[in-house]
Amino acid sequence: xxxxxxxxxxxAAPLAGKSALVTGxxxxxxxxxxxSLHAAGANVVLHYRSSSEEASALALELNDVRxxxxxxxxCDLLDSAxxxxxxxxxxxxFGGLDILVNNASSFYPTPVGDIDENDWNDLxxxxxxxxxxxxxxxxxxxxxxxGLIVNLADIHGVRPMRRHPVYCVAKAGLIMxxxxxxxxxxxxxxxxxxxxxxxxxxxxxIDPALRDEIISRTALKRxxxxxxxxxxxxxxxxxxxxxxxxxxxxxxxxxxxx
Length: 258
Hints:
The protein is of the alpha/beta class. 42% of the residues lie in helices and 14% in strands. The protein is built from 7 helices and 7 strands, in the order βαβαβαβαβαβααβ.
C-alpha cells in the first residue's frame, strides 16, 4: 500500500481534489476550519444542526470563490441512526471522503447536585458518542483514500474545569477515543486531535476577571483565535503524514502554566 506523501507547503492548493466533512461547520471554530480547508483547495461538506442561515451563507461565500465546492448537510448528531446517512452523503457528493473533522460540541456547566440525565446524554452525546459513531460510519470511505480524522478535544479533558464535570469527562473520553481509533483504523487512516485553550470565549459571555485570570495562566499571556485551531487542522491534513494518535495543544501554553 502506498504511503501518504508529504505535501509541498508551497503549493497554493495542497488539498485540491480532496474532500472534507466538518461537523458544526456553520459558525465560530467550525467555520474557520471550513474556510481554511477550502482555501487549501478542498471541497467541503458543511454539517449543521439548526444554524441553517449561517451555514447557507458560508456555503454561498465559498461557492462564489470556487463554484460547486461546498455543500450543506443537516443532521442532529444525537440521532445516531442518521450518522450513517451523513457519512454516506459526505462520501458521495464529491466522489470520496478524505478528511473528517469532529468539531461540533455542546458546552455548559453541570455543577454536582444539579446534573440530570439530559445533561449527560447531550454532553456525552455531542462530544464523545457522535464522534465515535460518525467516525465508524465514515471509516470505510476514509480507508479508501488514506484519510484523516481530526477531533476537537479540550485542555479540560486532561485538567478538570470547575462546575463542568460532565463536559470534562466527555472530552477526556474523546482524547482516549482519538488514540484508540488511531490504532483501530491504521495504517490507512490517521486520527489526531486538537486540544484548544482560550481561543474563543463562551457566546453568553464570561466574567472579565475570570477571563483575565485565564489569560494570565498562559505562557503567551494572550488569547488565541479560531484561525489558530484551523491552522492546526490544516497542519494535520497537509504536513503530517507520519503523525497519528496525537493530541496537539493549541492553548498558548496554558497546559504548562496551570
